[in-house]
Design brief:
The chain has one domain: Beta Barrel (Porin), CATH 2.40.160. It is built from one helix and 15 strands; from the N terminus they run H-E-E-E-E-E-E-E-E-E-E-E-E-E-E-E. A hairpin with a 4-residue loop joins strand 4 (about 65-75) and strand 5 (about 80-90). With about 210 residues, it is mostly beta strands. The radius of gyration is 19 Å and the shape is elongated. The model is unreliable at about 15-30 (pLDDT under 50).
Amino acid sequence: MRHSVLSAVLASGLAAASAAHSSDALAADSGYGAGDLFTRFGVAKVSPKNDNGTLLSGAVEVDVQSDSAAAFTLGYRFTDKLGVELLAAERFEHAIELNGDTQASTKHLPPTLTLQYYPLGGTQARVQPYAGIGVNYTLFSDEKVAGATLELEDSWGAAGQVGVDLLIDEHWALNAAAWYLDIDADATIGGSDAGTVDIDPVVVMGGISYRF
């Protein structure tokens, strides 16, 4: 399911870009490119992978549930085709099932920095797809578990991104994007090492983009 979401976003972006590139009717008022400072904002859904590992030497199966929250990005294009973008959001809160029962929860912030490539950057195409690679740092907080104390260590990991802007005018665009984040958090329960929770989510965001 995670890979199908990423494939769908990328395929739709590339298909739309191809159509835009071949049609003068899709020419924008002005091309996006070098020197652009922009923000994207909307709603993001964090969907962890299905198998999140086990704790306590395999005695406890972990299943981290999805959550949605407001999110935004801030980016800069230092050439027509290359830029950087930072993803931020309000805290996501995830229920955690242990052996099939909802017994725990955690909150997290997933700041993610990506280096992006825009194949149609600097052109007049209304549809601007992009892809990026980078790094994610996940900060966990407010962990809870029934009958004990739970702590998840903050996590560093790789990140991948695909997205597309549909330009409305010189400043505004519609946006859809997806990230894959490598999030593996070491866990302690009752102060003792319990194992690692493999979250590895896909983050899907839909919203609006504004170029300053």
